Amino acid sequence: xxxxxxxxxxxxxxxxxxxxxxxxxxxxxxxxxxxxxxxxxxxxxxxxxxxxxxxxxxxxxxxxxxxxxxxxxxxxxxxxxxxxxxxxxxxxxxxxxxxxxxxxxxxxxxxxxxxxxxxxxxxxxxxxxxxxxxxxxxxxxxxxxxxxxxxxxxxxxxxxxxxxxxxxxxxxxxxxxxxxxxxxxxxxxxxxxxxxxxxxxxxxxxxxxxxxxxxxxxxxxxxxxxxxxxxxxxxxxxxxxxxxxxxxxxxxxxxxxxxxxxxxxxxxxxxxxxxxxxxxxxxxxxxxxxxxxxxxxxxxxxxxxxxxxxxxxxxxxxxxxxxxxxxxxxxxxxxxxxxxxxxxxxxxxxxxxxxxxxxxxxxxxxxxxxxxxxxxxxxxxxxxx
Length: 385
Ligand code: ADP
Prior knowledge:
16 helices, elongated, binds adenosine-5'-diphosphate
């Protein structure tokens, strides 16, 4: 969708902002450009919508060399979101959002209807926020209007330059989540500039880590965190990359342990005797379809009357398969639990314990250099309440 071929940019004063850049962004992919200030990220971005032109190499958008494209028509295919939003202060939010439809000759009512739709899409109420002026909005709301405006002409490509940089961390977190949700349904091809590795990891399908004027590594978040291509990248992603890796590593069925289980309809005393004979102090309780119902302690149900269902307790800590190791870890901390159940819809797949969590993380990092020997990580895996 976007392809850079040996692209360089030397400004008239002799500054080389980017040098021999080659990379490709597939359709529907969100690529984050991350690196310290002054390394050429914004220049890269501005060459895509021809706010500035390369001094060497070629850039293709939708298969066409943009050097031959009319910049105005090109920009209609490319939404642009910048940190300071660039909203017109003397126009209402609704009219700001309708800027591009107006420019492309839409009639006012149609353009406004489209703008109202977009405001709703980014979580604003057109009736409340539409008539306001930009300075009557919070920073987060202004940023949402910036996104709505960029989407107005339904461009296949979005360029976002530090879009969430000007808001506080709580609002940034919310905007990032909202944007990911939006992107999951819109599938735009997105280039997003940030200086924040956390943001790059969280949002990007792939990350371009910039050194001075060049890309040092172009890879998935797990690739960049797990196997930094150079000491420079390793330093940039930080020494806590194992922690960051938690949030980008999905739980896989192979990571799971399979604890003993009891059936809901089994007599409790029988189940307890069977499980205790196996040395189990607790068991997962499953229904007839293999769905997760809860868990039961084998000591307290020994000699108890009734079925397992009468003694089962709620399983507080659980995550869906496909969730991240970080999700599992937070559940563990939240409920002070020794294990977290992993489910696929209603179906119980297995549990993650601190030991298996650590092993999964080590698999993802692809090295055991920071590994803790298994015996040291071993903990009592009985859930606590
Ligand atoms: P980043 O977005 O990574 O902070 P930029 O692309 O803005 O980096 O800048 C890359 C380099 O190019 C910097 O050294 C910057 O000072 C320089 N630069 C950017 N714009 C211009 C310009 N219009 N004229 C001269 N130098 C520029």
